[in-house]
Amino acid sequence: MVKATTLVTTRRPFRFRWRYVRIPVAVVLMALYFLPIYWMFKTSLQPEREISTSSINLWTTSLTLANYVQVLSDPLFATWFKNSVILATSTMVISVLVSTLAGYSLARLRFWAVKFLGRPFLLAYVVPSVMIVVPVFVTLAGFGWQNTYHALIITYTSFAVPFSTWLLRAYFLTLPTELEDAALVDGCSRLGALFRVILPLAAPGVATAGLFSFVLGWNEFLFAFVFVFTEDMKPLSIALQRILAQTIAASSADLGYYGFGAMFAMCVLVAAPILVVFLFLQGWLVRGLAAGAVKG
Q1: Using CB atoms within 10 A of its CB, is residue 187 exposed (0-12), middle (13-18) or buried (19+)?
Q2: 67-291: what CATH class?
Q3: pTM for the predicted model, two decimal places
Q4: Cβ 97 vs Cβ 79: under 8 Å
Q5: pLDDT per residue as tens digits for the range 36-54
């Protein structure tokens, strides 16, 4: 007699896995983020007659560099580009130097005033710039500094230094103090230990602070719009606003106006230096970590 055996199958309870939802959501968000960038680059390579059509095209069959030629041949664009480079580079150099010394002092010096000096740095950064634009303008106008480079550089630096100081202070706190003690025993001064021992280890933080300061000086609009009056002093951020107003106001791409293709080409040229600086400083991150290795 054969006994019948019953097989009991156990089903695992269904578990909802968030990864099946996160991946599609991340793909959709990434597509929404890159779509304006792709559209800007595509439009900069299109002829004006294709841009003005009402149909939506994700690609074009006729590519042209005429928009870039029009922008680069404009003598005002070279002036605007030079102004932005001067403002952004000066802001980056000054803010990195000041914030490095300030962050190192707040991280290493031990006295009662450090606790009271640290918080106002962050408070100066969180204050909205629109609240102080009028007092700053009145102050700088009293010195006769309106429509000048140094007025904008001082203003940009005042916003870049607080954030950079807090960033570098946190980075310096992660570094062991024994390295500085060894450098001081070997005859280095405090500044010598900072620049010869600590800065190679803190290169990633310094590069991040420099990138933040450069982007702030390159993209800033409010203070440049208030302080600058003449065309020869305008940075690219103000020039883009003027080009956009002219393009929208013009019925067609007549002489003296940029078309939408040239305007998007100018947007690409404005965004390109940020990408180049980021790629350059990204290499500094790797080299800074390698240079900071300590042999046992």
Answers
A1: exposed
A2: mainly alpha
A3: 0.80
A4: no
A5: 888 889 888 888 777 765 5
